[in-house]
């Protein structure tokens, strides 16, 4: 019996060491995704973060700990998921639903209600409430960095519109599909363009189509050809219930329109431009 417990102890110790090693290797790989910036107004991001494809993920250092945050213009309020909340357990009250930490106001999602992919190692989202404090914010998908307080001039800026949903504000703009004009939510947190059934039927895709390659999209100052798109009720789209209800009624303008471009948003003049 004694021999059995010794073997069991050694086995558990070995497995624990393997777990620590794998976690250390994973953390090193994640760290290598990020380059360091010499400016506090520039946040380097990666689009290759594990299980968070095409989301711009930045690394923030708060209270000597690293937080990996997806910067999401489709999210009105900054949110910490269960993983991120755990890093702040010693600094916040268990009764808190929100907390201001290092100058950022977070909603604390302890149950991962808003986590699209709970297996992703990101700690949460930085939303519009954070970004809107910096005047002009540019998502530079060429150099993979977000520029806060950008001095870039939006000489051909197009209007942005605010739409309320569940008492939260979302950013919308006009765009066109094959010459027909619609309005959609600018969402850097979406890896796809998602269009409502109206857009699909208007353009002859068929009401029962779940995906289609759109011949032409005009977004901002840019023209895009042959853009793969999904219908908002596509079963492959994994989102929480609140986001799903929002998507059924609204078009989502996602990553295919931003990659290899610079998306600038002027929160003061409520304009945007794509370079």
List keywords for this structure.
twelve-stranded mixed beta sheet, 5 helices, Cathepsin D, subunit A, domain 1, alpha+beta, globular, 19 strands, 275 residues
Write the CATH homologous superfamily of the largest domain: Acid Proteases
Number of domains: 2
The geometry reads as: globular
Gyration radius from CA atoms, angstroms: 21 Å
CATH architecture descriptor text of the largest domain: Beta Barrel
Structural class: alpha+beta
Instruction: Count every helix, treating DSSP H or I runs of 4 or more residues as helices.
Output: 5
Query: How many runs of DSSP E, i.e. beta strands?
Result: 19
The largest pleated sheet is described as: 12 strands, mixed
Unreliable spans: 14-27
CATH topology of the largest domain: Cathepsin D, subunit A, domain 1
Please report the first level of CATH classification, the CATH class of the largest domain.
Answer: Mainly Beta
Q: How far apart are the termini?
A: 71 Å
Strand order of the largest sheet: 5-6-4-7-3-2-1-9-8-18-19-10
Task: Name the helix and strand elements from N-terminus to C-terminus, one letter apiece.
Answer: HEEEEHEEEHEEEEEEEHEEHEEE
The level of helicity is 10-25%
Strand content: 35-45%
* Average residue pLDDT: 81
Write up this protein.
The N and C termini lie far apart (71 Å). Helix content is 20%, strand content 36%. Strand 8 (136-140) and strand 9 (145-147) form a beta hairpin. The model is unreliable at 14-27 (pLDDT under 50). It has two domains: 37-147, Acid Proteases (Cathepsin D, subunit A, domain 1, Beta Barrel); 158-274, Cathepsin D, subunit A, domain 1, CATH 2.40.70.10. The protein has 275 residues and is α+β, with helices and mostly antiparallel strands.
């Amino acid at each position: 019996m004694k021999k059995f417990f010794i073997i069991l102890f050694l086995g558990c110790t070995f497995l624990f060491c393997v777990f620590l090693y794998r976690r250390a290797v994973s953390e090193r790989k994640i760290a290598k995704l990020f380059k360091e910036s010499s400016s506090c107004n520039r946040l380097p991001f990666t689009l290759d973060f594990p299980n968070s494809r095409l989301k711009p993920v930045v690394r923030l250092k708060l209270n000597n700990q690293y937080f990996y945050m997806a910067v999401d213009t489709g999210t009105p309020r900054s949110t910490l998921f269960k993983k991120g909340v755990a890093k702040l357990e010693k600094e916040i009250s268990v009764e808190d639903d929100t907390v201001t930490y290092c100058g950022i106001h977070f909603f604390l999602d302890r149950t991962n209600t808003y986590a699209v992919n709970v297996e992703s190692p990101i700690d949460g989202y930085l939303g519009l409430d954070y970004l809107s404090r910096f005047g002009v914010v540019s998502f530079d998908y060429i150099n993979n960095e977000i520029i806060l307080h950008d001095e870039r001039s939006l000489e051909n800026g197009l209007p942005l519109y605010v739409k309320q949903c569940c008492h939260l504000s979302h950013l919308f703009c006009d765009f066109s599909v094959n010459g027909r004009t619609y309005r959609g939510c600018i969402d850097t947190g979406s890896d796809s363009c998602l269009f409502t059934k109206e857009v699909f039927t208007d353009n002859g895709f068929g009401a029962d189509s779940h995906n289609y390659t759109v011949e032409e999209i005009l977004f901002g100052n840019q023209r895009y050809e042959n853009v793969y798109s999904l219908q908002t009720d596509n079963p492959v789209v994994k989102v929480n219930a609140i986001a799903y209800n929002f998507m059924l009624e609204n078009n989502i303008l996602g990553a295919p329109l931003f990659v290899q471009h610079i998306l600038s948003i002027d929160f003061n003049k409520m304009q945007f431009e794509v370079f």
